[in-house]
Amino acid sequence: MIQFDTVSKLYPLGNAALSDVTFNIEDNEFVFLVGTSGAGKTTILNLILGDLYPTSGSVIVDDQDISSKKYTKLEELRKHIGVVFQDFKVLQDKDVFENVALGLRIQDLSKNKIREEVKEVLSLVGLEDKKQHFPVQLSAGELQRVAIARALCGDRRIILADEPTGNLDPKTTWDIMKIFKKIEHERTIIIATHNTDIVNSMKKRVLVLKQGKLLKDMQKGGYEL
Ligand SMILES: Nc1ncnc2c1ncn2[C@@H]1O[C@H](COP(=O)(O)OP(=O)(O)OP(=O)(O)O)[C@@H](O)[C@H]1O
Ligand SMILES: [Mg+2]
Fold this sequence. Notes:
Elements: E1 2-11, E2 15-25, E3 30-34, H1 41-48, E4 56-61, E5 64-65, H2 74-78, E6 81-85, H3 96-105, H4 111-124, H5 140-152, E7 158-162, H6 170-182, E8 188-192, H7 196-202, E9 205-210, E10 213-218
Helix pairs in contact: 3-4, 3-5, 4-5
The structure holds adenosine-5'-triphosphate and magnesium ion.
């Protein structure tokens, strides 16, 4: 479970990226984070990842207060979090297989185990035929599939996606959302997005942010800009 308890994040010069934000996200929930630019979506994802610390309040992930100065197991926790970005962040000098295997290499796994697991996620995202392709040979949609496969590889219980379809056309956007749908109920999925069409048609929980405040928390929500 992910718990935000009256979380605020202030930047120098008094800029409040988040003010008193409180919510819980249960294991295996599917949640959209929405709100106009600057609302605080990326800040929330970075707080869950432990990349940022709140100025006040607490961020609890899997019963551990990661916002506490005493918390020392961030590296361990991050092994269970997969991250997907708008600009894919795949490595140009590695083929699809190696890009996906990257997260597994740092874990102590046999070559066979790695091969098996990469094969499984590549088939899930529909890229099993392209494992030897390099990023320059792939379309944007395919690059995002690689990034999602990488985020899923290993024992990732939480998937954080920051505007994952921001660089994709509408059809490819839906193909990518279908992948997230395939894995729903198996992992916690949090997607920050501006895409109202997706949010309105998927009828998932929606957290609406405005200028750092949590404006609405809707089950099966819709959203208007
Ligand atoms: N390093 C920083 N220093 C100062 N202010 C920052 C910093 N990072 C973010 N902010 C501010 O915090 C607020 C929230 O930013 P955040 O990136 O979380 O918004 P967002 O909802 O992800 O926006 P977008 O949709 O444009 O990605 C913004 O007003 C932003 O200017
Ligand atoms: Mg953002």
